Amino acid sequence: MDMLINPTVVELSRAQFALTALYHFLFVPLTLGLSFILATMESVYVITGKPIYKEMTQFWGKLFGINFALGVATGLTMEFEFGTNWSMYSHFVGDIFGTPLAIEGLMAFFMESTFVGVMFFGWDRLSARAHLVVTYLVALGSNLSALWILIANGFMQDPRGGTFDPNTMRMQFSSFVDLIFNPDAQAKFVHTSIAGFVTGSMFVMGISAYYLLTNKRKDIALRSFRIATVFGVISSIGVITLGDALGYIDAHAQPTKLAAMEAIWTTDPHPVSAAWNLIAFPSRAAQKNYFEISIPYVLTPLLTHSENTVIPGIIQLEQEAKPRIENGIKAMVALKAYNEDHGNTEALATFKKYEKDMGYGFLAKEFAPDQDLAKVNAENLPSVLDKTAKATIPNVWVEFWSFRLMVAAGFFMLALFAFAAYYSLKNEVEKHPALLKLALWSIPLPWVAVEFGWITAENGRQPWTVYGWLPTFVSASSHSVGYMIFSLIGFTLLYSSFIAVELYLMFKYARLGPQEHHHHQPEPQTAGGGMAGQPAFAKPSLSPKH
């Protein structure tokens, strides 16, 4: 634990993982949401027996399949990246972090991947009810994958279920139940899954709006539009509600994230009148907002669901961190002494006394003379405490604005879904081409929201990879700068090509739309796709009729 990584390598490793995660999450939310919309459409088909709902399921399933395949390709890389670029992190928490990832692969990913093939190619091999069960299993598997990934991420945000072992210098499992039922993980799972439902709803609604504007397959477009809008209204309300719950949890687990998210610099001793910053331009150097538009009496009930809870500001949190940093330095010095001589019971006793603050001492290594905590003395201690305390606060500007852009997109989509659902249920949506055009051009909005949501979550956790225990600046692997630059460029090009393929295929098949057929003929049992006898991924005819 004495070896510090080149700061440039750490930043490049962070940039590469951020790139990988943000690229991958362009595919994930559509998989989560569209899978359940497919299940809903197919449920209507099984209940009513109307063939058009089967055709709808097959058409939207084609677009789901394109997204699913590319999502798998981008997701597999991330788990290997923990070992290649974050070896210290993998060593420190591998026993805990690796468990939910393994369960995700064995239980959820294999289940999802197996049944997705049956879903596409089993239309003429299974009964209608059996095929519906398979579609639900695909949707369930997709969301179970998200659950286990977010359980792993939840440990990084609020480490529960593990304890530090001074003999092995690693985190060890203490409670599998605490790991699974981590409040951050559970709230984030529901929030993320429902955000996927919003994404799927906007995707279906926007493309259906395009068909209505171009007078293409209105029979499918109107039904798809209605299902998507109702799904979208319910999901948007859910994602906003669960987002509020997640913020409430973060207020207790990560007060530094909350303070940065709201650009709160000073603690208001009168919580009843605390103002919420609607807009602000925060300055980390000056520790104040140069400009702000605030709404009084809103902050405390909004963030704490009470009227008398004091919300600590950034300046107070920095001061509160200093005693923990000082205790953490004592813990790290004692840990080093015990690691050199396991018979040193006095050092072990000292470490145990200050163990809960060990991570803050670890964080102080970056600012200690020669990165040696043993050299911190009465003369240089104030400087080390001050620099380390400031380092406990994430980038306020990024945190504040990424959160607001996410929330703004969420409320806009709720309003759009509400208007669209209202006119759709009244069978008047075709009378409002402006609304249809707005729905079409709003397709990217859910992705904007979820990407800024992840930036809010992960930037707000800094400067930690495991909050309060393991700082980011010591978590990376000891690669060379040249290697990291080469790797970053390679990943950028590779993932950009995946996005290009996704967009090309999505635009191609979305523009072609569901294929026309002779509505008065009895529908033969099909193997998938929109036409009898063609597999799910068969290339549609370019002619309007066949």
Describe it.
- The protein is mainly α and 546 residues long.
- 67% of the residues lie in helices and 5% in strands.
- The protein contains 18 helices and 6 strands.
- It has helices spanning 7-24, 28-48, 51-85, 87-121, 128-157, 176-180, 183-213, 218-253, 255-261, 299-304, 314-340, 345-354, 358-364, 381-391, 396-425, 433-441, 445-459, 481-512, and strands at 162-165, 170-173, 276-283, 288-295, 464-466, 470-471.
- The strands form 3 sheets. The protein has a two-stranded antiparallel sheet. The protein has a two-stranded antiparallel ribbon with strand order 3-4. Strands 5-6 form a two-stranded antiparallel sheet.
- The radius of gyration is 26 Å and the shape is globular.
Notable traits:
single chain; 546 residues; mainly alpha; two-stranded antiparallel sheet; two-stranded antiparallel ribbon; 5% strand; disordered C terminus
Helix/strand structural class: mainly alpha
Continuous helix count: 18
Molecular shape? globular
Q: Quick one: biggest sheet?
A: 2 strands, antiparallel
Radius of gyration: 26 Å
Sheet with most strands: strand arrangement: 1-2
Instruction: Give helix % range.
Output: 55-70%
Q: Please trace the helix and strand order, writing H or E for each element.
A: HHHHHEEHHHHEEHHHHHHHHEEH
Uncertain runs are 518-546
Number of strands: 6
Distance between the termini: 68 Å
Q: Proportion of β residues?
A: 5-15%
